[in-house]
Write a structure and sequence with these properties.
Blueprint: H1 5-34, E1 50-55, E2 61-67, E3 74-78, H2 89-97, E4 101-105, H3 122-135, E5 141-146, H4 148-159, H5 161-167, E6 168-174, H6 187-195, H7 197-204, H8 208-211, H9 222-234, H10 237-249, E7 263-268, H11 276-285, E8 290-294, H12 301-304, H13 306-317
Parallel strand pairs: 3-4, 3-5, 5-6, 6-7, 7-8
Antiparallel strand pairs: 1-2, 2-4
Helix pairs in contact: 2-13, 3-4, 6-10
């Protein structure tokens, strides 16, 4: 028995649309591979890195490395949700080349660091950072945080001002927020996408990098999309979702006015994940904060703008900008 013509037509149209979308994705991937990648020009040499671990009272173990000369300015880099310390490596390579000592660590539940028994909170991430600074006896450091890493820095500054006074010279907050993460109408869809295994299967497939397109701005590079996708997939589904819930619950607005350390806030004009208005709100709330808006950049600033971030971090140390 033959199918009605309208069913056949709908099937043909659906197949044509799928083929067209696949073709567009393949063509886009070619362009993204051909685009010049700023991360490829300077690569972090971890050959002489000193490994460290910090055990937390709840049983979580933080894993990190110290890279660069012992005599230079100290920079501590805190990474994003679903990222690892490798997310910061393009920037770290530039800082080490400029003579800095750089501390990179995996946030709990990410990379080589363990989770601990309890659901995560951003406040706990701030305490973890304080423990890293104490364990390494870091002094006069510049802290830089991207996305969730920037929220970690805010938690430290708001909840542990004693640590900041003792150990921190300045902060750089990149592509981040102090409140309002995936809020309003976006809250439920984002939670669904972050915790759904069918979405994971799509991300793991051929077009997974294309599905990460919204994480970057005007000039995508295939390597950035692959790295972002792979880091997202590396996390257990339930852990990824727990951290998202923690970010959605975070709100530092009441405490940011008390932040007393020089702070630079960097926002990409095309950041869809932590929109520019959220970064502007941080800069407006912290006394004397400097706001730097990057035209055309998206959310993954350590990949998209490693030279600029390195310059801003160096400026915060008192070096050249």
């Amino acid at each position: 028995m033959s199918r009605p013509p309208y069913i056949v037509s709908a099937a043909v149209l659906a197949a044509a649309a799928a083929a067209g979308a696949a073709g567009a994705a393949v063509a886009a991937a070619r362009r993204w591979r051909a685009a010049e990648d700023p991360c490829a020009t300077t690569v972090l040499d971890l050959e002489g890195a000193r490994a460290f671990k910090v055990e937390r009272p709840d049983g979580a173990v933080l894993d990190g490395v110290v890279v660069g000369p012992g005599s230079g300015a100290t920079i501590v880099l805190s990474h994003c949700w679903t990222g690892t310390r490798a997310t910061w490596e393009p920037v770290a390579a530039r800082l080490v080349a400029a003579g800095c000592r750089v501390v990179l660590y995996d946030q709990r539940g990410h990379g080589a660091s363990t989770m601990g028994p309890d659901a995560p909170t951003v406040e706990a991430l701030g305490d973890d950072l304080a423990a890293v600074l104490d364990s390494l006896d870091v002094r006069d450091a510049v802290l830089a945080g991207h996305s969730m890493g920037g929220m970690t820095l805010q938690a430290l500054a708001v909840d542990r001002p004693d640590v900041v006074v003792e150990r921190v010279r300045g902060m750089v907050l990149a592509g981040t927020a102090g409140f309002g993460v995936a809020a309003g109408l976006l809250a439920r869809p984002v939670r669904f996408v972050s915790g759904d295994r069918s979405v994971e299967r799509l991300m793991a497939g051929r077009f997974g990098p294309a599905l990460s397109r919204a994480s970057v701005g005007r000039r995508p590079r295939q390597a950035h999309l692959v790295a972002t996708r792979d880091a997202w997939l590396s996390m257990p589904t339930d852990v990824r979702r727990q951290f998202l819930l923690a970010l959605q619950a975070m709100d530092f607005r009441a405490g940011l006015a008390r932040v007393a350390v020089p702070t630079t806030v960097v926002v990409g004009s095309r950041d869809l994940l932590t929109p520019p208005r959220l970064g502007r709100a941080i800069a407006a709330a912290i006394p004397g904060a400097r706001l730097v808006e990057v035209p055309g950049a998206g959310h993954m600033l350590p990949y998209e703008e490693p030279d600029l971030l390195a310059e801003l971090i160096l400026a915060a140390t008192g070096g050249t900008s």
